């Protein structure tokens, strides 16, 4: 049963949070289903602990050390807490 829970977590992180690795870079392209209000989860990237919180309107990323990632194909460097607006034009819509 534990493996099944891991598959659900992975599906949510890859599908709805849009977490992927391309050419060695971490990409985040959130697309929550309309009925979801929030998705929050920890994520370890290259030994660095990150925390993501996604709502329909925003993406918040927390990191204790500087980390580079791509949010909706825009490169950013995060240290501390950063919140990004997810306007309807900037996000993919999940059905």
Description:
The protein is of the alpha+beta class and 95 residues long. It contains 1 helix and 6 strands; from the N terminus they run H-E-E-E-E-E-E. The chain has one helix at residues 2-16; strands at 19-22, 25-28, 38-45, 48-55, 58-71, 74-85. Strands 1, 2, 3, 4, 5 and 6 form a 6-stranded mixed sheet that branches. Strand 3 (38-45) and strand 4 form a beta hairpin. It is globular and about 35 Å long. The model is unreliable at 90-95 (pLDDT under 50).
Residue share in helix: 10-25%
β-strand number? 6
Terminal CA distance: 28 Å
Structural class: alpha+beta
Shape: globular
Briefly characterize the structure:
The protein has 95 residues and is α+β, with helices and mostly antiparallel strands. It has one helix spanning 2-16; strands spanning 19-22, 25-28, 38-45, 48-55, 58-71, 74-85.
Break the fold down into its secondary structure elements and pairings.
Elements: H1 2-16, E1 19-22, E2 25-28, E3 38-45, E4 48-55, E5 58-71, E6 74-85
Parallel strand pairs: 2-5
Antiparallel strand pairs: 1-2, 3-4, 4-5, 5-6
Task: Provide tags for this entry.
95 residues, alpha+beta, 6-stranded mixed beta sheet, 1 helix, 6 strands, globular, disordered C terminus
């Amino acid at each position: 049963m534990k493996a099944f829970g891991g598959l659900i977590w992975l599906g949510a992180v890859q599908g709805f949070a849009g977490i992927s690795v391309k050419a060695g870079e971490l990409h985040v392209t959130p697309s929550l289903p309309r009925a979801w209000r929030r998705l929050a989860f920890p994520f370890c990237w290259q030994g660095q602990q990150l925390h993501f919180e996604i709502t329909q309107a925003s993406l918040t990323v927390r990191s204790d050390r500087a980390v580079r990632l791509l949010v909706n194909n825009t490169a950013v460097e995060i240290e501390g807490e950063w919140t990004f607006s997810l306007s309807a034009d900037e996000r993919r819509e999940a059905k």
